[in-house]
């Protein structure tokens, strides 16, 4: 029998959809309170996954749900960087 490797699933904090981990972007609040994007998904800290979709990123910015989930102020630069990651994924 051939065993297929399971694809890890994570939930987008905005849409509440379960998606493969590779389709999501992880945003982390470090123990010191810094918020940053974690492309490796391995940094320590409180993490939140968000779908790699322009509308979902816009919704996260408008509703502040990402901020509430991380219990930290999310700088506008994080949302700008999320949009850039989305645009790069289209190329």
From TrEMBL:
Residues 10-83 form the YlxR domain. Gene3D superfamilies: YlxR-like. It comes from the Bacteria. CDD domains: YlxR (cd00279). This is YlxR domain-containing protein. It comes from Salisediminibacterium halotolerans.
């Amino acid at each position: 029998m051939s065993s297929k490797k399971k694809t890890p699933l994570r939930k987008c904090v905005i849409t509440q959809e379960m998606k493969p981990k590779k389709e999501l972007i992880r945003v982390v609040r470090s123990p010191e309170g810094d918020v940053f994007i974690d492309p490796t998904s391995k940094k320590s800290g409180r993490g939140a996954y968000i779908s790699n979709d322009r509308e979902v990123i816009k919704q996260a910015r408008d509703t502040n749900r990402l901020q509430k989930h991380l219990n930290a102020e999310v700088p506008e630069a994080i949302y700008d960087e999320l949009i850039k990651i989305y645009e790069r994924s289209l190329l």
